[in-house]
Design brief:
six-stranded antiparallel sheet; 666 residues; alpha+beta; five-stranded antiparallel sheet; 38 strands
Length: 666
């Protein structure tokens, strides 16, 4: 019965469904894994075959002394690999004989089994014995290549044509037993960590290892466990207790530890612990980690208080509700920097962009041809959704330069001595497209956001209106935002949240960080609005007088005014001169301590936008934000623009904005 209980767990391990368990009573696996009749069955078990042949004595000694482990600290009581290979479970075992299992290697495994350290015993299971045993019969009959999942969860290539296991040749094969089949291996099956195991076991003291493995959570799963009789108080007991391990870095790219906590933690979003994957991971050494941390730290200065933009005035400045960090600032800084240092490091090779008809990238192709990604029309995608293109002197292949990859069971590890992401990746420019959700409509916030109800996003096709945009400028994303006046005598006031995207397409979301920026506003001419509303450019085409003669009466002559398809640049200039904007700009932001917000006038006197072309106007140069908003869920600085038009000056009360740009200066 003990063998039946453990078989359920072994099967679950191979299928990758659990990480730890306690054995339970079930015949499920025995019922499923019965003989398939492809080899002659005898009364001898696999264990009988191994222990009775002196050529396999070293392997037999290891089997005899090896306990079965649920995880690296929980061996199953009174249960060993001798029980597994001698019981009713059907298995295939690839046995390295004494000629290839060297004395030194034999002594290494035996020493680990007798050390008293449970982690050593678990490693013998995972790295050696479990790497030579698989559920079911895997015999050599017809030629072909099978991917066999071993009971340690690894996928090994069983080439029945070449008679090899992961490149190691077989001697004898298809040796029958009542509970499986045995092949003799002329070498030891190579064991490789997956990327997660490499961090957890390969170099557990490394700073990146401590960060990633530190996110592990082990929890009891009642649904996966087998319930026994209730105890004396009626509470359930379990004859098969299953514990699962999860790591939120793998499950999603963003998760919130606490709704009151103002930062969402971010991870890889893909399981670097899964064997059926092909990942490339950058693994910084401690020296690279420390250098990267120091590089990022100046941009991660946090305040003791932040204004909660999700409450109060619906996001507009003026909320009396603050997020108080106080003694949490240091932990927030460390958490944010480490998260941003780690989250971009993983690439799924099979999800790299390719042209139609091209095969998916493979690990070998990545090793040999990753420099192809350095061309201007190529790019890489990491699992965190960052888009990495060659820009300036920086190339994506720089991330992997200087080292040879270490092959893992599910990918490649590049153990680098430098974290080679470009500065525009970790301190990107911030580009805010004004499309509606970036401005505040809250009527109650009268001091901050007031404009007419006609305000809205307008579509404007750069291609359709190419005659105009080639001369007077394109608008970003084929739209702009029109802000109507408050009244016939007063212009709009608008507050814009300063968080957006990176114009270099490195990162999907860009936020203001501590440090210096040039702050710029891209304005759109008022006459572009006329084109967007009418859907054509007729209003700004030249006209001509055409004489029309009646074909039935040549004396009947009339004159018509017709629109040409030639832009009337003189009229456009005249129209623009009467539709300029006069505006002021203000910035609201947090101080390092003592106050939730500060408002600063960026333009001491009103600035003029000429109304003729799509134009970028700098409203502040080298403005230094004292604190960072990176990774904050509920806070951001804002830019307030106010139309200050004087009625007699030939200005309009409106504002038309394409986007706001914060260009990083340090």
């Amino acid at each position: 019965m003990a063998n039946n209980r453990i078989n359920r767990y072994i099967g679950a391990i191979v299928l990758g469904t659990v990480l730890t368990a306690v054995p339970g009573c079930t015949d499920t696996w025995d019922d499923h894994y019965e003989g398939d009749g492809s080899v002659t069955e005898t009364t001898a078990t696999l264990w009988d075959r191994i222990k009775n042949n002196p050529e396999y004595s070293r392997f037999a000694d290891i089997v005899r002394n090896a306990k079965y482990y649920k995880d690296n600290t929980h061996p199953v009581a009174n249960y060993s690999y001798e029980d597994i290979l001698g019981g009713g479970q059907v298995n295939t075992v690839w046995v390295p004989d004494n000629s290839v299992l060297s004395e030194a290697e034999y002594q290494k495994w035996m020493s680990m089994l007798t050390s008293g350290d449970m982690t050593d015993g678990y490693n013998v299971q995972q790295q050696f014995l479990g790497n030579h045993i698989a559920l079911w019969r895997h015999n050599i009959s017809e030629p072909g290549v099978d991917t066999v999942k071993m009971i340690n969860g690894k996928n090994l290539s069983f080439d029945k044509s070449q008679r090899t296991l992961d490149g190691i040749p077989l001697g004898e094969y298809n040796i029958p037993s009542v509970n499986g089949v045995m092949h003799i291996l002329k070498g030891v099956a190579p064991f490789r960590y997956n990327l997660y195991e490499h961090l957890k076991y390969g170099n557990p003291q490394a700073k990146i290892s401590q960060y990633v493995v530190g996110k592990d959570t082990i929890f009891f799963s009642a649904d996966s466990s087998i319930e026994g009789l209730p105890d004396e108080n009626g509470n359930p007991t379990y004859v098969d207790s299953v514990y699962l391990t999860s790591n939120k870095l793998f499950e999603t790219t963003s998760y919130v530890l606490d709704d009151q906590w103002i930062m969402a933690e971010e991870g890889f979003g893909e399981h670097i612990d899964r064997e059926d994957s092909a990942f490339v991971m950058i693994v910084p050494t401690d020296a690279a980690w420390d250098a990267a941390y120091a590089k990022l730290e100046p941009a991660y200065k946090y305040a003791t208080k932040y204004e909660d933009k999700t409450l109060g005035d619906g996001g507009a400045t003026g909320s009396s509700i603050a997020l108080k960090l106080d003694d949490k600032v240091d932990s927030l800084t460390k958490m944010s920097i480490k998260m941003d240092l780690v989250s971009p490091l993983v690439f799924n090779v099979r999800k790299q962009p390719k042209n139609p008809g091209e095969p998916l990238w493979s690990l070998d192709k990545f090793i040999d041809e990753k420099e192809l990604l350095d061309s201007e029309d190529k790019y890489m995608l990491n699992t965190f959704r960052d888009t990495l293109r060659a820009v300036g002197d920086w190339k994506p292949s720089d991330l992997f330069s200087g080292v040879e990859p270490v092959r893992m069971s599910n990918g490649l590890a590049y153990e680098v001595n430098s974290w080679n992401f470009p500065s525009k990746f970790y301190t990107p420019d911030v580009e805010v497209e004004i499309e509606g959700q970036e401005v505040f409509y809250n009527v109650a916030a009268k001091k901050n956001t007031i404009f007419g109800y006609a305000s809205r996003k307008l579509s404007f096709s750069n291609e359709k209106f190419k005659k105009v945009t080639d001369i007077y400028g394109q608008v970003s994303n084929n739209n702009f935002y029109y802000l109507a006046p408050q009244s016939s005598s007063k212009g709009p006031i608008v507050e814009i949240k300063l968080q957006g995207k990176s114009p270099t397409a490195y990162v999907p979301n860009a936020q203001v960080m501590s440090g210096k920026y040039d702050i710029k506003v891209v304005f759109v001419p008022y006459w572009y609005r006329i084109i967007a509303l009418t859907g054509g450019m007729d209003y700004f085409y030249k006209t001509e007088i055409v004489q029309v003669v009646d074909p039935e009466d040549e004396n009947n002559v009339r004159y018509e005014t017709r629109t040409t398809e030639e832009l009337d640049e003189d009229y456009i200039l005249y129209y623009a001169s009467n539709t300029k904007y006069l505006f002021k700009a203000y910035l609201t932001y947090n101080q390092a301590s003592g106050t939730e917000k500060s408002k600063q006038t960026l333009t001491s006197k009103a600035l003029t936008y000429n109304g003729l072309t799509v134009d970028t106007i700098t409203v502040a140069e080298n403005f230094e934000f004292p604190v960072s908003y990176k990774n904050l869920r509920k806070s951001y600085p804002t830019l307030i623009l106010e139309n200050t038009k004087k009625k007699e000056d030939g200005y309009v009360f409106d504002l038309i904005i394409d986007k706001v740009i914060l260009e990083r200066k340090d």
